[in-house]
Amino acid sequence: MSRAVIIGGSGHIGTYLVPRLVEAGFEVVNVSRGERQPYTPHAAWRDVRTVTLDREAEEKTGEFGPKIRALKPDIVLDMICFTLPSAKHLTEALAGKVQHFLHTGTIWVHGPSVAVPTTEMQPRKPFGEYGIQKAAIEAYLIEEARRDGFPATIVHPGHIVGPGWNPLNPAGHFNPQVFSTLAQGKTLALPNFGMETVHHVHADDVAQVLMKAIANWSSSVGEAFHAVSPAAVSLRGYAEATAAWFGKEAKLTFLPWPDWKAAQSSEEEATATWEHIARSPSSSIEKARRLLGYVPRYTSFEAVFESVAWLVEKGVVKTH
Ligand SMILES: NC(=O)c1ccc[n+]([C@@H]2O[C@H](COP(=O)([O-])OP(=O)(O)OC[C@H]3O[C@@H](n4cnc5c(N)ncnc54)[C@H](OP(=O)(O)O)[C@@H]3O)[C@@H](O)[C@H]2O)c1
Question: What pTM does this model have?
């Protein structure tokens, strides 16, 4: 039995990935602080060993990499690496010791969209510390793979969606009130013409890409893959589809960005919207489809509406 060590396996992606790994026959070890539980229970978790470690604390003493190596993994899936020094520390500890290393990146390694859908080949022009660090990690891991044979694959998810947490909404932030507004047929203001885009992915489709990267080792090592739904959506189209899903017609108004921003009660929400529409991602899945056989189970709307149904059931989104 091959041993898969997943670092940060009890979050959005791990909820779907860990059962897939168990069902595929891996002996699974989840490394986390032991604070989070998967969003959806699954019997597979009974077969998972959890090792409690705080990555940040262990990295400070230089012990994180050696402790992961001591678990004797065949495969390591790193869900929570955010800085280049963190990636280097782990890679140096695992070099020559693992058959496959899978890093979870983000489509924010790309800056503002240029020619869409954006391919993995396009030059990286990230902005913001998160995207800049993730792009640096990607470049480092690809170089390590090509120069030294470190068996790294990078998977870049879009905005991850699933029942159990708030999806990125049609106003480009995370306040679920936006869904209530559309459900109740009330007016929603969108920035600009509402034509900027967001690109969701269901967490299970991210897990699918990771599993297919493992299954297609020779095609995936040294490569990066987007993990997104088949198509990005415009904020306007997203708002209209959401209202229709609730049986309503969307009532939308449009404001130039400075006016829209000033009209928001929360600076945090305006910032979240800016972060998303300043990039307006629209990523290609052609490479994952061609090399890995990735076939997304969910469109953006299907993924989001599964989440919204959960929010309605919990009483977070109110239809009246
Ligand atoms: N969320 C998105 O929309 C999105 C979009 C694109 C890319 N990504 C990328 O996806 C990855 C995150 O995946 P996710 O959304 O599945 O994760 P997540 O839901 O944030 O879960 C994080 C996991 O890591 C564990 N963890 C957190 N801090 C830890 C620490 N200091 N030491 C050990 N374990 C720790 C958590 O468990 P404990 O709390 O119990 O430790 C949990 O298992 C990141 O690399 C992110 O950049 C996310």
Answer: 0.99
Task: Check if the beta carbon of residue 202 is closer than 8 Å to that of residue 306.
Answer: yes
| Closest Cα to atom 24 of ligand 1 | 8
In the chain, the amino acid numbered 64 is F
Ligand 1: which of 71, 79, 109 to mutate, most ligand atoms within 8 Å of CB? 79
Which mutation among 5, 16, 32 tests ligand 1's pocket best, with the greatest number of atoms within 8 A of CB?
A: 32
**Contact call for residues 40 and 163 (beta carbons, < 8 A):** yes
Backbone angles phi, psi at 52, to 5 degrees: -90, 115
The answer to whether the CB of 319 falls within 8 A of the CB of 180 is yes
- Over residues 208-244, the pLDDT tens digits come to 999 999 999 999 999 999 999 999 999 999 999 999 9
For the stretch 119-164, pLDDT in tens is 999 999 999 999 999 999 999 999 999 999 999 999 999 999 999 9
